[in-house]
Amino acid sequence: xxxRPDTPSDRQTDERTDERTDERTDEQTxxxxxxxxxxxxxxxxxxxxxxxxxxxxxxxxxxxxxxRSAEKLRPVAEAVGTEPLVAxxxxxxxxxxxxxxxxxxVESIDVLMNNAGGTFAPSRRTHDGHEPNFQIxxxxxxxxxxxxxxxxxxxxxxxxxxxxSIGNLAGKIVLDDLDYEHRRAMEFPAYGTGKLMNxxxxxxxxxxxxxxxxCAVAVHPGPVASSFGRDSWFVxxxxxxxxxxxxxxxVEDGAAPLIALAVHGPDPEIDxxxxxxxxxxxxxxxxxxxxxxxDGLWERxxxxxxxx
Length: 308
Ligand SMILES: NC(=O)c1ccc[n+]([C@@H]2O[C@H](COP(=O)([O-])OP(=O)(O)OC[C@H]3O[C@@H](n4cnc5c(N)ncnc54)[C@H](OP(=O)(O)O)[C@@H]3O)[C@@H](O)[C@H]2O)c1
Hints:
Layout: H1 17-29, E1 38-41, H2 47-58, E2 62-67, H3 70-80, E3 85-86, H4 92-105, E4 111-114, H5 132-147, H6 149-154, E5 158-163, H7 187-208, E6 214-220, H8 233-239, H9 244-247, H10 251-264, E7 273-276, E8 279-280, H11 291-304
Parallel strand pairs: 1-2, 1-4, 2-3, 4-5, 5-6, 6-7
Antiparallel strand pairs: 7-8
Helix pairs in contact: 2-10, 4-5, 5-7, 7-11
Bound molecules: NADP nicotinamide-adenine-dinucleotide phosphate.
């Protein structure tokens, strides 16, 4: 971990730089800063999820990892000292089973890292009949987080870290057309819509669950040269051609803000906020603070996954 997230007070003046550097050094040198804390990382079979899981386990956390392939997840699970928990987020029943598996293993969760996601062809449909960018990036983590609310509450004070994206700027939420049945669906805007939903969901958690001591943040990790966008020609153009030298950062650098937030833990000052890497209040879509959308998305999502 090389940095910690900015809090609002950090932004007041640059004169505090020395103090911040001291605080960072304290965090860096505390090699067991996550001892006694339980972290669940989704999308831990690859990219920044795998890196976060390994690093947080190295800092002493008890780490649970999920992925859609047991085989691919196994090396990470072994590295963090656990069993792979398998769930394909394109199947909501897998998510329900995953929540039950987690509840069997741990009584409380200090940090839930909703990180699984990516870009998917919007012409496809998931097992549950939804547009895949909507289900895999939003609906499945929405369901998982709701089902794990008792474990998050049991920690007394806990943090949900939702991996969002700068792509949220390209998104557009239409509550009556969450599955893109009545408008043209293009991959990047559909992905951006899912990532915008991550921010609205973050605000929803912050507004609804603070009585349980549950805080939430959303974070853009940066343009990470992971397996992200593996099936997307558009993302591939930037990430897997010589152009990537100019536009991408390493997986280690991409995971750093997620890890920093997990180590920082629950904090009312950051609750409900969106980070662009380490900077609080990154650039957001104008829909990101629309209260009717925050509530509407929560209610529709709950109906769609059968929580009401
Ligand atoms: N890389 C970037 O530039 C970037 C930028 C902004 C935001 N993000 C976000 O960061 C998060 C992590 O991405 P990454 O860069 O680490 O990409 P990655 O290397 O492709 O990792 C994505 C993870 O999500 C899992 N996943 C994908 N589809 C799934 C499904 N249907 N069910 C369950 N798990 C699924 C993958 O599992 P498999 O290993 O089985 O594929 C993998 O573990 C994503 O939410 C992504 O949207 C990435």
